[in-house]
Write a structure and sequence with these properties.
The chain has 340 residues and is of the alpha/beta class. The protein is built from twelve helices and 15 strands. Residues 135-226 form the Mandelate racemase/muconate lactonizing enzyme C-terminal domain.
Length: 340
């Protein structure tokens, strides 16, 4: 097998603002895995706040050494080799894991969701993320987002209540809110969440800094809405420590190490009584199509990343009646656009 990795810059349709900063691009790494005339595609997006770089990911991927005749159907062996080579770098493993699974499905000739026996009827509706913005801009964006059943609102700014109210001025659709570690006072947070519970809000993501474990546990014990860990939850070991600190976890392929790790996390989280959100970065339809294969395992989905970028080099999973659904093609069901 021959692995090709290349850095890529994703241009966003509009500035994307969170409590931790704003950006107009997202760096990424695209991967191709060539074997027997087939190509498995993989990707990892690398928002800067996570601290990972395309050069670091590409260097880690260059250390993977498979034999030319390596069997793509032996996923355990191929993933073990990749994990040993890249070391403690989940995004590098995520990119190659997605490519391996895509190639695996193409060799067999079936989509991953079919091979795993998942029922597409269990796929939850996905949300559309609205970044931190002015109330006027949020009213406009919420009014235009008619294809989505759920909206996700980034908070953690100077007047979060005004932003929620602005969206509520134009729609009564369910909301989720994500503070991205931007809240500071736990008593004020609890009071605000009490108000959010009256605004048809489904859950709250990462209210405080990931390091504030005791404050999250205090809030989780008292909150009328589920508290979901995101920045604090990367790998399976984080999930095992989550009960009592969070009501649920946000699982993303890029931060946990790919499809194999995400499937284990989703299954373990459910066994531990945690709610699950399957999320994404701002990424192409390659990574989104991969995540969609696992979405029947999740309680909620936030798989809008490709909708936020300006020039998607892939096509794949599509929004249908508010849900991201996979294509019935082998593997992850994503293909490079012919113009690329």
């Amino acid at each position: 097998m021959r692995l090709v990795a290349r850095p890529w810059t994703l241009e966003l349709k509009a500035p994307f603002t969170l409590a931790v900063g704003s950006r107009t691009t997202t760096p990424a790494v695209l991967v191709e895995l060539h074997h027997g005339g087939l190509i498995g595609y993989g990707e990892v997006a690398l928002p800067p706040y996570l601290g990972w770089t395309p050069s670091g990911v590409c260097e880690a991927l260059s250390r993977i050494d498979w034999a030319d005749d390596a069997d793509p159907l032996n996923l355990d062996a191929r993933l073990a080799t990749a994990a040993a080579a890249v070391g403690e770098l989940p995004p590098a493993l995520a990119a190659v894991d997605i490519a391996l699974h895509d190639l695996f499905g193409k060799v067999i000739g079936r989509p991953l969701y079919v091979l795993w026996g998942f029922d597409l009827a269990r796929i939850p509706a996905t949300s559309l993320t609205l970044g931190l913005d002015t109330p006027e801009a949020l009213r406009r964006k919420a009014s235009q987002a008619t294809d989505y059943r759920i909206l996700k609102l980034k908070l953690g700014g100077a007047d979060d209540r005004a932003l929620v109210q602005a969206v509520r001025d134009v729609t009564d659709r369910p909301l989720s809110v994500d503070a991205n570690q931007g809240w500071q006072d736990r008593v004020a947070a609890l009071d605000f969440i009490g108000w959010l519970a009256e605004q048809n809000v489904l859950f709250v993501e990462q209210p405080f800094s990931a390091a504030r474990v005791a404050d999250h546990a205090w809030l989780t014990e008292r909150s009328p809405l589920p508290i979901i860990g995101d920045e604090a939850i990367r790998t399976l070991s984080d999930v095992v420590r989550a009960p009592g600190v969070y009501h649920g976890v946000n699982v993303k392929l890029a931060k946990c190490g790919g499809l194999r790790a995400a499937q284990a996390i989703l299954t373990t989280a459910r066994a531990l009584g945690l709610r699950t959100l399957l999320g994404c970065m701002t990424e192409t339809s390659c990574a989104i199509s991969a995540a969609v294969q696992l979405s029947p395992l999740a309680d909620w989905a936030d798989l809008d990343g490709a909708a936020l970028i300006a020039h998607d080099p892939f096509e794949g999973a599509r929004l249908v009646n508010g849900r991201m659904l996979p294509q019935p093609d082998p593997g992850i069901g994503a293909h490079p656009r012919t113009s690329q």
